[in-house]
Design a protein that fits this description.
By secondary structure, the protein is an alpha/beta fold. The chain is about 35% helix and about 30% strand.
Length: about 350
């Protein structure tokens, strides 16, 4: 097994950058060589917190260093495509925060470029590395919940308003990535409605429905203008139902032995309701971001496909793009682009 240190540069020291720097700085098998940001004030802060790490105001300084194998993009969403493209062209492995890009064509270009150059392209879909989501995936794959019916999510809070993206692009990538990961198929069409209350043209609240093959439905509600801080998924199967509440400290997942069924459908019986036990499984905690960073290290070392690779990132962008068009069309269904 390859145990060498992976030399990394991190681009962006804004909201999420310090968390990535902390994890890569502390992670065995990684040497964080550069922190890059255009703000000298932020770099000064980074230098105090992460000694012996080189500081740079220009990304080219990082890309020109042959010792750097991989770069991590934690800059604003609008810069993801151009900066990731520069890094891939420079021969670096790339981990880019969500979303992969703001346009489907840009995302496809990055995926193709990574494949052509033999580089790892990974997208920071953090929730896929959450221990509770890992439990959900294994539980659903086991078949114990029965056939999937639908899933819905709520990602709500009051605050952290953005000026360069609406709440759909800011918040929904988390929930969309989980739905695609659990369903393992793309939706066929998307319907979205929303409203702008604080800034014209930037939706503060969005309701979005994903229509999958086989009558499966995913619904998400995202808002940064809400009195509740909510991070929750509800999954309904024909045998069991599950709830993942990320705001709960010690009961992240609940499994409900509840279902509706017919004794004999051919006889036209009334549906029966089964109420069984409610269980709280033990899930060993591990920081999702630490798992994500370690996974990127391992993918670079072993040249293996990431769990949240560029193709998965592209699928999320396709859903976001379709939802954006549906918003513009006042809720009309929009089919996903072919890419």
């Amino acid at each position: 097994m390859d145990n060498r240190d992976v030399v990394i540069g991190i681009i962006g020291y804004g909201y999420w950058g310090p968390n990535l720097c902390r994890n890569f700085f502390e992670l065995d098998g990684v040497r964080l060589k550069y922190i890059c940001d255009s703000s000298q004030e932020k770099l000064d802060e980074a230098g105090r917190r992460f000694p012996r790490v080189e500081l740079a105001t220009e990304i080219q300084t990082v890309l020109d260093d042959d010792e750097v194998e991989a770069v991590v993009m934690a800059s604003s969403a609008v810069t993801h495509y151009p900066l990731a493209k520069r890094a891939l062209l420079a021969g670096k492995h790339v981990m880019v925060e969500k979303p992969l890009s703001l346009e489907v064509e840009q995302g496809r270009e990055l995926v193709d470029l990574a494949e052509k150059n033999g580089r790892i392209l990974m997208v920071g879909h953090l929730l896929i590395y959450h221990p509770a989501v890992d439990y959900l995936k294994k539980y659903l794959d086991s078949g114990e919940a029965g056939e999937f019916c639908y899933i819905y999510s709520q990602r709500l809070n009051l605050g952290r308003l953005r000026r360069d993206e609406n709440c759909l692009w800011s918040l929904a990538p988390h929930d969309i990535s989980v739905m695609l990961y659990l369903f393992e198929i793309e939706p066929e069409s998307v319907v979205a409605r929303g409203a702008s209350y604080l800034q014209d043209g930037l939706e503060d609240v969005v309701f979005c429905t994903l229509y999958f093959p086989g009558k499966k439905i995913g619904n998400l509600h995202v808002s940064w203008l809400d009195p509740h801080k909510t991070r929750k998924f509800t999954i309904v199967g024909k045998e069991k139902m599950l709830v993942f509440d990320d705001m709960s400290t010690d009961e992240k997942v609940r499994v409900f032995d509840k279902r509706a069924y017919y004794l004999d459908l051919e006889l036209g019986n009334e549906p029966q309701i089964h109420y069984g036990d409610q269980t709280v499984p033990f899930i060993r905690w591990e920081e999702p971001l630490r798992k994500e960073c370690a996974h990127f290290r391992d993918c670079v070392r072993e040249e293996k496909k990431p769990l949240s690779d560029g193709e998965q990132g592209l699928r999320v962008v396709k859903v976001l793009s379709a939802a954006t068009k549906s918003l513009e069309l006042n809720g009309q269904p929009v089919a996903l682009e072919k890419a």
